[in-house]
Each structure stands twice: as structure tokens, then as C-alpha cells.
Amino acid sequence: MNKHTVSRLVLFTLAGLLGAVSAAAQTGPYQFFAVAPCRVVDTRNPNSTNGGPIFNAGTQRDFAIRGNCGVPTSAKAVSLNVTITGATQGSFLTLWPSGGARPVVSTINFTFSDPALANGAIVGLSTSASDLSVYNSSGNVHVILDVTGYFQ
Q1: 8 by DSSP, 3-state: which?
Q2: What is the mean pLDDT of residues 82-92?
Q3: Can you list the positions of beta strands (E) in 20-141?
Q4: Closest CA to 139 of 88, 64, 63
Q5: 10 Å Cβ neighbour count for 18?
Q6: Domain edges within the chain
Q7: The domain 31-151 belongs to what CATH superfamily?
Q8: d(Cα 21, Cα 25) in Å, to the nearest integer?
Q9: How crowded is residue 57: how many other Cβ atoms within 10 Å of its Cβ?
């Protein structure tokens, strides 16, 4: 087998795997609907349900996602960008559906020297009035959530 034959074999194998993954994703229980990126939470804004204040150490807040930014009330999960800015200390954020136990994993980790840092996430939504919980472990930090799509 020469290197061109191996390259073609790898490409056909990758194409076959990607095709299988794509077909499997389409047969799941939910469909994904993209929306134009839309800022649903920004703690730099005045105090409100989806605005300020800044997150302090050990703070958990609940946010309303459904009914905002084109996310319907029937949505089961959202795709979003999680951005932090103005961190006073290294920390992490955890996002999860409101009303449940906080998971023991982080959604984004950051240091105080990061002027701003973002990470993409897919997070389920709660069946309660508040859709999404966010927890900050240490220091103070502003949190920005931009919705990019939803599942239903």
C-alpha cells in the first residue's frame, strides 16, 4: 500500500464515521434549532433577573432563559457561550438546570489575569420557573451568557 492509498483509506473511513455520527445525531429525541447569537445574561448590567450584580465567591444565581432570545418555552436545553470578565481571583463556573443538585464539574475555569475568557456549553433547562443555575467558586466575576441555539 502506498501513501496515496493510505490517505484515501483514511479519508473514506473518516467520511464514513462522520456520516454515521451525523445520522445518529439526527435520530435523537430532540432537534437543534440555531438562533442568531443573543445576549441573555450580562451581570455588568443593572441589577435584574438576567443582569447584575457581579457574582461573589460561593454565589449561585438562577436565570430565565426560555422566552428570551428566541428560545421557546418548550425548549429542553440551550447551546450557549459562557464568558467571564473582571475576575478578581482564579475560579470556575458551573452551569446546570435549576432545581437540581449542582454537578461536581466546571463549565469554565479561569484566572484573575484573564481579561475575558469564553467557552461553549450545552446545558439542560429546568422545568421550574428559573431555567438555569450558575455557581461561582471564588472571588468576584462578571458572567455573560450568549444563546446560540436550543433543543426541543
Answers
A1: helix
A2: 98
A3: 32-42, 59-63, 77-85, 91-97, 108-110, 116-124, 132-136
A4: 88
A5: 10
A6: 1-28, 31-151
A7: Nucleoplasmin core domain (2.60.120.340)
A8: 6
A9: 13
> What Cα–Cα distance (Å) separates residue 75 from each residue in 36, 41, 99, 117, 125?
16, 17, 16, 27, 7
Q: Are 82 and 130 in contact (CB under 8 A)?
A: no
d(CA 73, CA 43): 23
Determine the pLDDT at residue 41.
98
Q: What is the pLDDT of residue 26?
A: 57
Residue listed under C-alpha cell 440551550: 78
Placement of cell 426541543 in the chain: 152
What 3-state DSSP class applies to 25?
A: helix
Per-residue pLDDT tens for 96-121? 999 999 999 999 999 999 999 999 99
The rounded distance, in Å, linking the Cα atoms of 129 and 149 is 20
